[in-house]
Each structure stands twice: as C-alpha cells, then as structure tokens.
Amino acid sequence: MKSVIVVGSGIWGSSLALRLAETGWRVTLIEQHQPGHVRQSSAGETRLMRCAHGTEEWYARLAWRARDGWRRLGERAGEELYTEAGMLWFAQVEDGWEHASAQVLKNLDIPCEVLDPADGARFFPDFNPAGLSHLLWEPHAGVIRARRATQITARLAEAAGARLVRGRATPADGAAVEVGVEVGVEVGGEVLAADRVVWACGAWLPELFDVPVTVTKQDTLHFAVPAAWSTPGTPAWVDHAAAAYGHGDVDGVGMKATSDAEGPAYDPEHGERAVDEAGVAHARSYLVRRFPSLASAPVLFSQVCQYALTPDAEWIITETAPGVWLLGGDSGHGFKHAPALAEYMAGILDGAYGPEPRFGPHERTPTRGLRTSGQAG
Ligand SMILES: Cc1cc2nc3c(=O)[nH]c(=O)nc-3n(C[C@H](O)[C@H](O)[C@H](O)COP(=O)(O)OP(=O)(O)OC[C@H]3O[C@@H](n4cnc5c(N)ncnc54)[C@H](O)[C@@H]3O)c2cc1C
C-alpha cells in the first residue's frame, strides 16, 4: 500500500488527506494545533467561491470542478457548507478584468451574465452604482462556510483511515529513513516515514523551506445589518479594481465587507489577532460608497487571518527532493479550489502527470490579479 504523510490540516492538507485515504493510500496527517484552529487561513468564517479569474482558464476550470466537491461534501456532512448565492462583480471599466472573465466563462460554458450597473438594485436592498461600467453576474458562485468545511473534511479523512498526529513536524535529517525508498518527517522526537511527504503548511511554509512566500496580516470585518441583507438572498460581491469584497449575512455573523489590499508582514503563530482601526475604516469606506444605507452599521464580528503570497499569486506545487512535495503559496485565493486541487495533487503523487510549470520553483515575476487587484482603490 502506498503511504503518504501530509503536514498541515488546513483545507489544502485535509482535502488531500481525504482524497488519498479514499483512493488506497495509507495517510498520516500531521497538525501542530488542531484542524480548524483559528490561526489557519482556512479557519475564516466564510470564503468566496467563484469561477471568474480574468483571462485565466486553468483556475476557472478548477473552481468549476471544485463546486461539485463542495456540494458533495455538504451532502456527506448532512449540512449546507456551500451557499450558492451567486456573485456580482462590480466592473469599473468596460474592457477590464471582468470583461476578460466573462469571455473565459462563456468559452467554458460556465453560466454568467453581463448586466447594467443599475441592475444592482435587484440584488441588494440598497445599491449605489456610481463609477461602475457594468456588472458581471455569476449565478453559481457563492459562499463556503470555511472553518466548518475544514473541520468536517479533516474528520472525514480520519473516518476514511487517515491517522491524525498532533505536533509540529520538521523535515527529518534522513538518519532514520532509508534514503531513496522513503522520506520522513520528525514530530515530537519521533521520525515518521512514508513513500511521499506533502508539506501543506500555509503561512508556516517559509519557516521550513526556502520559498518565495510573504505572509501578510489581513483583517476581515462583518457588519450588523437588517434581515433583508441575509445570504442567500443577498449575493456575494467583489470589486476587483478596488480590492474590496464581501457577502450578505450568513448565519447571523453579519454582512462581510472587507478590503483585500495586502496588509503588513505578519507572524502566523505569534502575531496578535486584533484588527486595526485602519482596517475597520477601510472596510467601512467601501460599504458607505456602494451600500450607503449601511454607513453606520456597527462591526459585529471580525477575524485576523494571513495571506501566504507568492510574487505572482500562482501557487507552489513542487518536488524539492524525491518524494518530498511542497503545496503552498495559496496567495489568498486557494480555499474554493480545495476539493479539485486535492484530486489534481493526488494525480501528481500517483505519477499520472507532473504539475503545471506555473507552480514550479522558477523566478516569479511580480504580478497581481488572480485574487483581486491586491491594492486599495
Ligand atoms: C482574509 C482571507 C480571505 C480569504 N478569502 C478567500 C476567498 O474568498 N476564497 C478563497 O478561495 N480563498 C480565500 N482565502 C485563501 C484561503 O483561505 C487559503 O487559500 C486556504 O485557506 C489555504 O489553506 P492551507 O491549507 O494552505 O493553509 P492553512 O489553512 O493556513 O493551513 C496550514 C496548516 O498547516 C499547519 N502547519 C504548518 N506548519 C506545520 C508544521 N511544521 N507541523 C504541523 N502542522 C503545521 C498549520 O497549523 C495550519 O493548520 C482567503 C484568505 C484570507 C486570509
């Protein structure tokens, strides 16, 4: 039986552990805290699911496949983990990112519709279309209950036979491992060995490996809103150029309205998880601009998370030594893809194909765009 050690029980590691445990691998999943712990990027209350990725077809296809995965996960869990509330993209220019996205989605037969800015009033109780050229409607996009989905995925992986080991793993120095046959990790003074190791360590990856990943602090804000702003009903929304996004109130946690501008450098293990005044002001300024009746809505809930950013926002999927794989650099846009990414990564570990060159160890050219513009606008 093939064996694998997956380090990290965020949504990437847990989804991979589940996939491999269900397809004939002996799986050990190592986590320094516990699946769904609040330092994880995956432990955000919610994450957006969308297929639009500008000119990028590869991610659009992957997201569309992942949608099935989220729906299946919800069915297995017996609860709705993915709320398909739709998403409105607020396009500031006629032939920009949203226009390119619409072309790709149409080519891939993924439903979408270009709408007039004034149509926004059909989707939100209050909407100011000022400064918008058009809207792009993705009816099958929506909101994932992220932390819950991560905990359930890890639990299903265990139920499928994965062994969950609590502790901080480091690469084994090779002494106790038969070189070329197995690869190993050290955890709690013990060396564990397997045919493959996958380091899915999120923002902790740069502590262990020389990877081009910068970790930034990201404040997430939810505002108290009247019932008419609940999701489903109210869709998710993104203003790519202004680096702002959110969705209506899911489960009484409030309407999410958050800046996606990249924050200051951050330590995911020891950093204080308190939002900055500036983060609140920034989120509110977009709310005021687009949804004026919410101008004085109080903050109801906030979370501090971190991005693990590569220079070009493309992920890292690379083999650093035979059998040793890095899976990271999610760059703030990895959650939605997790079930499909796990399937893709399983194919790589099975030797069916290699990773796309874009995920390799080459020098990356600084670019943004796969998430949002990454800059406040
Ligand atoms: C504010 C914010 C908003 C976002 N919004 C979206 C969105 O709308 N849509 C979307 O698709 N994505 C979004 N993302 C990105 C998404 O959350 C991440 O891509 C995804 O959660 C990454 O998961 P991961 O498993 O790689 O990392 P993590 O969830 O961080 O998990 C890594 C795990 O590895 C463990 N670990 C690390 N090192 C070790 C070690 N040495 N030994 C043992 N365990 C270890 C950690 O404890 C942690 O549990 C957002 C991210 C943030 C911060």
From TrEMBL:
Identify the InterPro entries for this entry: FAD-dep_OxRdtase, FAD/NAD-bd_sf, MTOX
Q: Where is this region: Disordered?
A: 355-377
- Domain of life of the organism encoding this protein: Bacteria
Q: Which Gene3D superfamilies match?
A: D-Amino Acid Oxidase, subunit A, domain 2 (3.30.9.10), FAD/NAD(P)-binding domain (3.50.50.60)
| Membrane-spanning intervals of the chain | none
Q: Which residue positions does the secretion signal occupy?
A: none
Which Pfam family name is an example for this entry? DAO
Keyword line: FAD, Flavoprotein, Oxidoreductase
Q: Which residues form the FAD dependent oxidoreductase domain?
A: 4-346
Q: Which cofactor does it need?
A: FAD
Protein name, entry field = FAD-dependent oxidoreductase
Upper classification of the source organism reads:
Bacteria, Bacillati, Actinomycetota, Actinomycetes, Streptosporangiales
